[in-house]
Design goal:
Two copies of one chain form a homodimer.
Chain A: H1 2-11, H2 14-21, H3 25-31, H4 35-45, H5 62-75, H6 79-91, H7 100-123, H8 133-153, H9 160-172
Helix pairs in contact in A: 1-6, 2-3, 5-9, 6-8, 7-8, 8-9
Chain A binds a DNA duplex (18 and 18 nucleotides) through α3.
DNA sequence: GTCTATATTTGGATAGAC
DNA sequence: GTCTATCCAAATATAGAC
């Protein structure tokens, strides 16, 4: 994970990875027949957004959006995993990249989940109606991704968590700021 | 440009590039002493967003935002350049990447330009006040970037232009849809 | 200005011993 | 399950002729 996050897929080497895990190159390739297999193995390991692991009993409606915002805030302290997904998702659009299928279906899944949550929120009357859930879903995911890159390049200038909270709030039309307990 | 866009920096090879331009490898390295120099040369050539080239007589206030939206729409027909910047901007956050300085300053410049335009729009009364221009600026750039990746992976599913127009409109609090001439 | 030739390093992967 | 040894291909870069 660290190697792919720090150097990207192409520039990370089995030599470095092997050394880090205390094996020889052949030792690593005993478990993962190829470098591409190793990458997909790493990607399948877990999901940066903490979303896939929620399963079917995920929060509904705006509660789900709030969970999103919380995840962004938490990610501020997990630069490594942010870097991993930021680098690899973009790298995956290159020709023949081994993570292409992974990210294609990941985005598809994220959009579907978010679209559903937005529909729930509308049905619950939590957010104003009249907007296309699927389009908003894509935009919400997009801001989070885009802010990650800017934050990685300038962590002291870009307040990723604050910007994400504000942006998502405005995109869906509801204030998602965590209310203080009185 | 095409090589870096299609394969990313690390995976693009001087061999392929040389062949494409009809030179030998040594021939290419005669003009650009190293691969890294070639990359920065390509990046300096022009800017995907068409923004830097606007100079000081750029449109003011919401007119500038409209220009942004138009650019996104135009980019729908320029997959190559979209891919170039999407791939390289993310790749640039990896350790020692030769385009890191370029993208750091590019984002800084874009945020500054957009922040200024948002302040103008507020002073002109074109958009509601009370929002932090710098934060909104970062988010606007972020949606555009994020939508590009999703669009590249699923061009038939993601309507980049429509989503960007809607998202930016909501982020700044004004309808940016191009009005039809009557 | 462009080439050939080559140095040098590094990459991923395989065979087979232990 | 892990290693040594090795293969082979490909990479960037340099030297120097033309």
């Amino acid at each position: 994970m660290e190697a792919f996050a720090t150097r990207g897929y192409n520039n990370a080497s089995l030599a470095e990875i092997s050394e880090r895990v205390g094996l020889t190159q052949a030792g690593v390739l005993h478990y993962f027949p190829s470098k591409a297999d190793l990458l997909t193995g790493v990607l399948d390991l877990r999901d940066a957004s903490d979303l896939e692991e929620l399963g079917e009993d995920r929060p509904r409606g705006t509660a789900f959006l709030r969970h999103l915002v919380d995840t962004v805030r938490r990610n501020t302290a997990r630069e490594g995993i942010v870097r991993l997904y930021a680098v690899l998702s973009a790298e995956s659009v290159t020709e023949g990249h081994p993570a292409q299928a992974f990210f294609r279906s990941r985005y598809e899944g994220l959009r579907a989940m978010l679209t559903e949550a937005l529909d729930e929120a509308r049905d619950l009357g939590e957010v104003p109606g009249g907007l296309d859930s699927a389009t908003v879903a894509a935009s919400v995911i997009a801001v989070m991704d885009g802010l990650q890159v800017q934050w990685l390049l300038a962590p002291d200038t870009v307040d990723m968590a604050a910007a994400a909270e504000q942006a998502i709030s405005r995109l869906v039309g509801v204030d998602l700021a965590p209310r203080d307990a009185v």
